[in-house]
Amino acid sequence: MFIARRDPSLAALRRLIGALAVIALLVPGSSRAGAPPGGFADLAERLLPAVVNISTTQTMKPSQGGPELPQFPPGSPLEEFFKEFMERQQGGKSPDAPSRKATSLGSGFIIDAAGYIVTNNHVIADADEISVKLHDDTVFQATLVGRDPKVDLALLKIEPGKKPLVPVPFGNSDDARVGDWVLAIGNPFGFGGTVTAGIVSARARDINAGPYDDFLQTDAAINRGNSGGPMFNMRGEVIGINSAIISPSGGSIGIGFAVPASLAVPVLDDLRKFGKVRRGWLGIRIQSLDTDMAENIGLPDQKGALVAKVDPNGPGVKAGLKDGDVVLKFDGKDITEMRRLPRYVASTPIGKKVEVVIWRDGKRQTITASVGEMPEDPAEQQVKGKPETPKPQAGKDGILTIPGAGLTVSSPTPQLRERFGLDDEAKGIVVTEVKPDSPAAEKGMRPGDMIIEADHKPVRSPADLGKLIEEGRRAGAKSLLLRVENPQQLRYIALPLAEGKKK
């Protein structure tokens, strides 16, 4: 039998390392955001009075949430039969019965002793009445100060009278690091005053909830009813408003999302001052860059936001922005991803003059823009968007086939305009066919798209496009930058031009 021998000096060293590790965990301040030595009890006791339960009441018509009564001639036997059936389905109430009340639950927290309370917009959306229950079970009726569906925030107000309220401050969510401890308090499934702990799992998450997504992700347990509740750091500061979870079952699986305080505070300030949010605006439509686009315009990487269209009446055109520019930096902030630009612009004070670094004609340029106020229907939005290559083949009636791209285009005849719902004044050529698995299909082109520019030159006929394709191939270009429009969106597409190998 083989018996391992223990080296006394090695064992002593291990004991020393273990002791030092324990000391490091116990020494106060040894970790910037470590868990308190005694747990979270003291912190939770201090914060619980600031967190409230929110219940809403909404008036619903009898037909809401269930099938409607089919229409039959008055007095017909079928009318009576279906009326009785509907009454049974709706608990004895006929479709003509009085409206009923529906209730929902959520969370919120006090930010001002004067009675201002923060929650999610979706918690109070369409509510007729809003009630707020404090930690000591005192109930107040709340009024809506303002709400912002784009960031999913709402500001409420109660009149506490002589009742003392315990507000909590906001912290700097930009300082939060992945791995920092956080505490979530809320009203999950109606169980008020529930405290859960976890860490910041990730930052800057985009879950397609709105145009300014920049969520903090946490593994602290968040469930239905936690919406609108606070996420605290270990100093007791609110760094996020719990808003959403990802779960196949509806319960927490450790993937929750919170609106960061850095995004929420300016919104709440505007709601308090104006009852609505006033956002900065450049008046541009933007889209992301792919590898082919970046290479086509000479950019060394895919960072930046491509300007698909400049509003003729917006601040961008006054600043000198043009279609096809790429915004690389805005007010000193690098645009590492396209979706960053709308948030930066929206959070900029209205009227502020900012430097905008752009890529145009193969080089960086700097212009100055004065940020305007976003209108109700803003123009700035995100635009979401081999085989042998024979020459383009011209056919009858202004039709052009580009086999290497898998694309067929035509002059916009009245029949095609009617077929694809195109405006009579729309200029360009219309895509009539896109072959599956072709380069054009991979770039998202589809029948009904209108090509209005190629290589920044107007396209008014299929022949114009064919000429520019051939010029590009002769020049050794790998792609041709097309400006494509349809009734839903406007975008740029880099159409590959590389010749394939002959079979």
From TrEMBL:
Enzyme class: hydrolase
Catalytic residues (positions): 122 (charge relay system), 152 (charge relay system), 227 (charge relay system)
Keywords: Hydrolase, Periplasm, Protease, Repeat, Serine protease, Signal, Stress response
SUPFAM superfamilies assigned to the protein according to its UniProt record, in alphabetical order: PDZ domain-like (SSF50156), Trypsin-like serine proteases (SSF50494)
One example of a Gene Ontology biological process annotation: proteolysis
Subcellular location: Periplasm
NCBIfam families: degP_htrA_DO
Name of the protein: Probable periplasmic serine endoprotease DegP-like
Organism: Paramagnetospirillum magneticum (strain ATCC 700264 / AMB-1) (Magnetospirillum magneticum)
